[in-house]
Design brief:
By secondary structure, the chain is α/β, with parallel strands linked by helices. It has four helices and five strands. Helix 1 packs across helix 2. It is elongated, with a radius of gyration of 18 Å. The chain starts with 17 loop residues before the first strand and ends in an 8-residue tail after the last helix.
């Protein structure tokens, strides 16, 4: 559709009372939300298409959630004109969080809700600690995790 916002698969409903922007998880496109209803009790569910996926495959994918959030919030800014929230599943929960941070940092309306599905709170998860480990440290941590879960890791 000519003139269509690349972040969206369809134009948001101008009569919606509120919106939830649904960000797809790693490796998928916005079409993953095709079977979801377009709205629930007047709240519109708006699938978000990320760069580097589906019809945006030729675009460079951002390398950090912060980088993604800057572009995402700029692209969605015209549609943040009513109460809204972000929904993210798994890794996209982190993208949703960063988008909320970016909206506030740029002086735009902040989301009323942030829905994080299948993701632990940043302070509760080991992810940040894992990013700081070298190869040997990561190998040791993974070996411990496997043993704690009853696995039998093979020796080096």
């Amino acid at each position: 559709m000519k003139g269509m916002n690349p972040w969206l698969l369809r134009r948001p409903d101008p009569l919606a009372t509120a919106r939830i922007f649904c960000i797809p998880y790693a490796g998928t496109g916005a079409s993953m939300y095709n079977r979801w209803p377009s709205s629930i009790d007047g709240v519109e569910l708006v699938p978000v298409q990320l760069p580097g996926r589906a019809n945006r495959m030729r675009e460079k994918a951002p390398t950090t959630y912060e980088e993604l959030a800057v572009d995402l919030v700029a692209g969605l800014a015209p549609y943040l004109d009513r109460p809204y929230g972000f929904f993210g599943h798994c890794g996209s929960a982190l993208a949703a969080y960063q988008a909320a941070v970016q909206a506030e940092a740029t002086g735009l309306a902040v989301p009323g809700h942030l829905f994080a599905s299948s993701q632990v709170a940043p302070q509760d998860g080991p992810t940040g600690r894992f990013l700081e480990l070298d190869d040997d440290g990561l190998t040791d941590e993974l070996r411990i995790m496997i043993q704690e879960r009853g696995g039998n890791p093979t020796p080096d």
